Predict the 3D structure of the following.
Amino acid sequence: MDIVLRAVLAWGFIFFLTRVVGRRELSSLEPFDLIMLIVLGDLVQQGVTQSDYSATGLLLATGTIGTMQVVVSWLNFRFKRLRPLLDGEPIVLIEDGRVLERNAHRERLTRNELEEQARLAQIASLDDVRWAVLETSGQISFIPKK
């Protein structure tokens, strides 16, 4: 039972950590970030299993974390009011060519990063953007002016 409780605690901490880190950072992993995620996974494993290398420990830990994911997915599907808490909400970054500084600052996005993402979406200037929305996945959707 100890491994199950540790797995629940680890899952909750990782869920909290990903919400704090921000969706933009998670959607654009650099090589260093990927290595840090692997190291984090190893550290979490050590904390969850306490050097229990048995098959039972493996099944308990992975089964608990998998179950937590399924439960949260079901809660997200079933209860509309929980969606903003579990998934977050899309955030408008640009409206009619004007960067909404407060929203961009909150997500730690610079104007240069927005311009880069716009160019990747084949948009030459932010003035040509009607809406830019930071989706819950971390991707930025651009809706050009017509």
Observations:
- Strands lie at 91-95, 98-99, 129-134, 140-144.
- Residues 114 and 120 are 10 Å apart (CA to CA).
- The two ends are 59 Å apart (CA to CA).
